[in-house]
Write a structure and sequence with these properties.
Strand content: 25-35%
Order of helices and strands: EEEHEEHEHHHEHEHEEHEHEEHEH
Number of domains: 2
CATH superfamily of the largest domain: P-loop containing nucleotide triphosphate hydrolases
Structural class: alpha/beta
Number of strands: 14
Strand order of the largest sheet: 6-7-8-3-9-10
CATH class of the largest domain: Alpha Beta
CATH topology of the largest domain: Rossmann fold
Number of helices: 11
CATH architecture of the largest domain: 3-Layer(aba) Sandwich
Largest sheet: 6 strands, mixed
Length: about 300
């Protein structure tokens, strides 16, 4: 659905993207991750046909973003990180205006606007002035605007930026509903816990270079972690940690209060060896629990925090 080939963008002496090769499959939510200045917004603007790459190429729905931009624009809904609103309009007038801009007319336009208001849970706000909406409601309206022409692809740049926890949860639930409609969604965000929950695949970009593109499970393999096991022993924590570090299936061991956090290597078959290994070493195991490896932890491991 979305593919880039050696995509490169240079702003005078600054290289924003370098040889980017990325693929987003049809019907998936793709999380685009990276620090500020890494090249996320530049990539999304190129995919939205708003920027021209310096070299390389990109395709959306099989069309080239430069040579066939006019074919792409009706197929995408683009929501930038900061978007302007016409504050002297009501919510319904705002959506009607954009529906008209996409050529929707008469009863069809009225029906679609009503359907979008219902989908985005803005029906009760249809007569409210846009300027009176909360930040969360304005973000919801921005997403509604991208849907009025029934696009195949949504390109969302930080849609949860600046929202309170409830509004973020509501936006996340809305995106899951949109995915059920068969839409392909590429979304950039700094809130990795949200992406971890809803994304099928992720891309990690740093200093203009895509350092990973694939499923979250593939990312865990790249980070060489087969999981984290929380272990507690009756005493001698430090000695138990040293013993586990010497095992060939263990990548690292950290201590936290009375617990050990054992990071397994990606090729470790399971963690059943841990209690046996500790008992053989003369330790009494009092707790054994598999922890969830968070996307945030993996991101910190595979990136260095550099920008373009």
């Amino acid at each position: 659905m979305i593919r880039t080939f050696g995509l490169t963008k240079r702003y005078r002496n600054q290289l924003a993207l370098e040889n980017l090769n990325m693929q987003v499959k049809q019907g998936e939510i793709f999380g685009y991750i990276g620090p500020n200045g890494a090249g996320k917004t530049t990539t999304l603007k190129i995919l939205a046909t708003l920027l021209t790459p310096t070299s390389g190429r990109a395709e959306v729905c099989g069309f080239d973003v430069v040579r066939e931009a006019r074919h792409i624009r009706p197929l995408i809904g683009y929501m930038p990180d900061f978007f302007g609103v016409y504050e002297d309009m009501t919510v319904e007038e705002y959506l009607t205006f954009f529906a008209a801009a996409y050529g929707l007319k008469g009863e069809k336009r009225t029906r679609i606007v009503s359907d979008i208001l219902e989908l985005t849970d803005l029906g009760s706000k249809r007569d409210a002035m846009v300027e009176a909406l909360s930040r969360g409601m304005q973000q919801r309206l921005g997403l509604a605007r991208t849907l009025v022409h029934d696009p195949k692809v949504l390109i969302l740049d930080e849609p949860s930026s600046g929202l309170d926890p409830r509004a973020r949860i509501e936006i996340r639930a809305l995106l899951k509903e949109v995915k059920k409609m068969g839409k392909t969604i590429i979304i950039s965000s700094h809130i990795l816990s949200e992406l971890e929950e809803m994304c099928d695949s992720v891309g990690i970009i740093e200093k203009g270079n895509l350092i990973f593109c694939g499923t979250q499970e593939e990312l865990r393999l790249k980070a060489a972690t087969g999981g984290v096991i929380e272990v507690a022993v009756a005493d001698r924590n430090g000695e138990a940690a040293d013993l586990l570090r010497a095992h060939p299936g263990v990548a690292d061991v950290t201590t936290d209060d009375d617990h050990l956090h054992v990071v397994l290597k990606a090729d470790a078959p399971d963690y059943s060896f841990i209690p046996e290994y500790l008992i053989q070493g003369g330790f009494r195991v009092t707790k054994l629990n598999k922890e969830h490896v968070r996307l945030e932890d993996i991101f910190m491991k595979v990136t260095k925090g550099i920008v373009s």
